[in-house]
Amino acid sequence: MTGTAQKDDRRAGSNEPRPIYLDYQATTPMDPRVLEAMMPYFTERFGNPHSRNHLHGWEAEEGVEKARAQLAALIGADEREIVFTSGATESNNLAIAGVARFYKDKRNHIVTLVTEHKCVLDTCRHLEGEGFEVTYLPVGKDGLVDLAALEGAITDRTVLVSIMGVNNEIGVIQPLAAIGRLCRAKGAFFHTDCAQAYGKIPLDVEAMNIDLMSISGHKIYGPKGIGALYVRRKPRVRMQALIHGGGQERGMRSGTLPTPLCVGLGEAAAICQREMAQETARLEALRDRFMSRIDARLPEVFMNGDARNRIPGNLNLSFAYVEGEGLMMGIKDLSVSSGSACTSASLEPSYVLRALGVEEELAHTSLRIGFGRFTTEAEVDYAADRIIAAVQKLREMSPLWEMAQAGIDLKSIQWAAH
Amino acid sequence: MADTLYLDWNAGAPMRASAREALVSAIGRAGNPSSVHGLGREARRLVEDARSAVGALVGAPARSVVFTSGGTEANALALCGLSLPAAASAVEHASVLAARADASQVPVDAGGILSLPALAALLAGRGPMVVSVMAANNETGAIQPLREVADLVHAHGGLLHCDAVQAAGRVPLDMRALGIDLLSLSAHKIGGPQGVGAIVLGDVPGLRAILRGGGQEGGLRAGTENVAGIAAFGAAAREAAAEAPGFAALAALRDAMERGCLEAAPGTVAIAAREPRLANTSCLSIPGAEAATIVMAMDLAGFAISAGSACSSGKVRPSHVLAAMGLAPEIRSGAVRVSLGPSTPAAEAMRFAAEWGRLASRLRGDRAAA
To answer: Do A32 and B15 touch (CB under 8 A)?
Structure first.
């Protein structure tokens, strides 16, 4: 572990060599500029932003409102349309259950995708128990929604269409503008889980006809424990709150607002807005550098998800003829993920990859590699070399690889039972 | 204005140095506690250490702690996560009263203490219920007879939920000894950060999540854990538990300040002063005055206090707590909350009393002139 990549280690004070962090879809390290903006609110400006009668409260409120404006600016929204939540999971729960329950008497059908985040799918499944009907649309091999199928699925009973902006495992970008047009034409609300998209790709709630958008703090170099939900005011989207009480956030979400976290989320959004174009180009270059290094040395590597409509900070690759667990063990000094972090503790193949029709063997050997703001060229080179070495070593030990090299079609083999 | 004295500790306590250190050291690290790689496991360890500390604050094992985004969410989970019929004391926090539209309310007496006969009558007619009774009231500091409440609730096969947001770290709390089945905590009321809380669970069959998704927190609360906030909550809980026995000593200063206010302005009413109450909390009224006027005047004089609870989105609304206690409207309208903290200087608290006297006579003069 004396690779040059380690020189870029930003975690001062640690004596141990740190693994290289390539799991930017699970969470992102906080940007030091975000922390700097938050710090005063942890110390001298600690007031409760709802205490309207004294300076401690006013200072806190000012910080919260500035953050709200920063969040809105990134998606062309009005600051009054931003509701702070504890994170994207809560935003998704609130958007889907809140809207569905409010309009239950008028419309009781929801449309979503089989590749949505677990919190969207779990909420939908729960709503089925409350009497809602849910259509789970399949996706193509590229991971993208079939617009014709979507159009066919939306009826005059459809209250909500929930389709994510960017998939957390495979990084593909759904055609939000086209989806928004369809929803608006059919009178269904359009909710999009943009935990992975917000701050990464241009989003415009007007141009895309988005009615509700979920936002996460810790996916954009902001703090964990904070998120937001964009809720359109014109035409107004109404919802039933999940968390009642003091009536904060215009009754949509009660609870004392965590001022420093709100401030951090706002600052994180502002940085993304300023640096998006430049950062996108930088990540594309890193991603291409990584892929060409892999491609030059390793055959039989498959990219999961559409190759064009994807964020540059994500690669989901399957390495044929290696064994998943062995691969993970071979690259222990890289923090990467196989499947989504929420489910990766289990060894089930990813439901997202299965939905794409990826064969089980290939799903088992997939790696989600996430690049982000602090990823360097040296880290990318080091990571590629480590993966190449691990895959080559595993393949050398694999009888399947040997047979494949000898031209034997593995599918034609009749395996004997033991 | 920088020298404003903060006497609004019940709205939120300043962060403890230990909590800030824990937070800052955790917040710069990457790592999702659900990730299996090393950085994920480090984040997981921070969360689990904090879980033990938070459990210990209320005499509960680590595994009984479910982290939430705060006290309000904890209350929502306790009440909305159970399908039992619900009841709550009439002086509960808005997050409890609003959680279940179908909840029955249990009246309180003039001191704000829950009526046990009324609760017994309700339970006799309804059978098993989840009953929500706070440990200490945020506006008056009044402490509820939880053990007696628990016995009644359990005798009818129900569950006791206790919003202990204001009491934690201020009075010794042992969940099991008190018979509490679900207990809500908020980090920022004990010197931790805003945006973190917990629900601590005894044996609670049938509790279901209100936030669904990745299966975190034993399936009871989905969402990536607020690792740094949770770590800081743990640090604050450790200190608060150590300080809880000494918190009662604040009563001497609070009582001296209260006496000072009563002497300086003889018409002053000290609400719930004869009840067992939190050692730092004083609910004072200048009958006939407007609470907002008192708060503003005190702010100009350099004291940050509040009119009732801070959670009403800025609006000074008539307090449902004081109304439930049956206090006369003129006492209610002039009531403010003064809440001290361990670091409140004695001299400043007494200066507050003197200012209170001046303000009361000025208000009397205004009213006489009008």
So the answer is: no
CB contact under 8 A, A51 and B20: no
Residue B185's φ and ψ, nearest 5 degrees, are -130, 150
Given B220, B244, B268, which residue is the final one in a domain? B244
Position A114: which residue type?
Answer: V
Kindly list the residues from chain B whose CB atom is less than 8 angstroms away from the CB atom of residue A372.
none
For residue B159, pLDDT over 80 is answered with yes
Tell me the CATH class for A32-271: alpha beta
- What phi, psi does B248 have (nearest 5°)? -60, -25
Residues of chain B with Cβ-Cβ distance to A328 below 8 Å are 36
Q: Is B311 designated active site?
A: yes
Question: Could you tell me which residues come within 8 angstroms of residue B228 by beta carbon, excluding any fewer than 6 positions away?
Answer: A223, A224, A225, B22, B23, B24, B26, B27, B46, B193
ipTM of the prediction? 0.87
- A50-54, B182-186, B336-340, B344-348: which has the minimum mean pLDDT? A50-54
For residue A91, which of A113, A59, A123, A62 has the smallest C-alpha distance? A123
Beta carbons of A223 and B214 less than 8 Å apart: no
- Nearest CB among B29, B35, B38 relative to A341 is that of B35
Among B274, B277, B270, B276, CA closest to B336 = B270
Interior CA angle at A275 toward A272 and A277, to 5°? 110
User: Scanning every residue of chain B, which has its alpha carbon at the shortest distance from the alpha carbon of A341?
Assistant: B35
Question: Could you tell me the two tokens for A56?
Answer: 């401690």
Q: What angle do CA B258, B262, B265 make, to 5 degrees?
A: 135
Range of the domain at B309: 5-13+247-369
- Alpha-carbon span B182 to B185, nearest angstrom: 10
* Spatial contact of A276 and A199, defined as CB atoms under 8 Å apart: yes
A236 by Cβ neighbours in 10 Å (0-12 / 13-18 / 19+) ranks as exposed
Q: Right CATH number for A17-29+276-401 from 3.40.50.10860, 3.20.20.70, 3.90.1150.10, 3.50.30.20? A: 3.90.1150.10
Report the chain B residue with the minimal C-alpha distance to residue A9. Answer: B29
Domain boundary among B244, B276, B293: B244
Cα(B173)–Cα(B243) distance, rounded to whole angstroms?
Answer: 12
Task: Give dist(CA B232, CA B226) in Å, integer.
Answer: 10
CB contact under 8 A, A244 and B224: no
Looking at residue A139, the DSSP 8-state letter turns out to be B
Nearest CB partner across the interface for B310, out of A29, A50, A93: A50
- Chain A CB contacts of B69 under 8 Å are 85-87, 90, 225, 255, 258
Alpha carbon B287 to its chain centroid, in Å, reads 26
φ, ψ of residue B242 to 5 degrees: the values are -70, -30
Residue type, A122: D
Question: Containing H/E element for A180?
Answer: helix A176-186
Interface probe, candidates B5, B6, B23, B37, chain A, greatest A C-beta count within 10 A: B37
Please enumerate in sequence order all residues whose Cβ is within 8 A of that of A187, keeping only pairs 6 or more positions apart, or say none: A156
| Cβ–Cβ gap A224/B213 under 8 Å | no
Pairing type for strands B104-106 and B86-89 reads: parallel
- Would strands B182-186 and B197-201 be described as parallel, antiparallel, or unpaired? antiparallel
Preferred mutation among B1, B10, B27, B41 to probe A, highest tally of A CBs within 10 A: B27
For the segment A23-70, what is each residue's pLDDT rounded down to a tens digit?
999 999 999 999 999 988 887 666 667 666 667 778 888 999 999 999
Comparing CA positions, the residue from A331, A335, A333, A309 lying closest to residue A319 is A331
Q: Check A254 against B296: CB less than 8 A apart.
A: no
Q: What is the pLDDT of residues A138-182, one digit of tens each?
A: 999 999 999 999 999 999 999 999 999 999 999 999 999 999 999
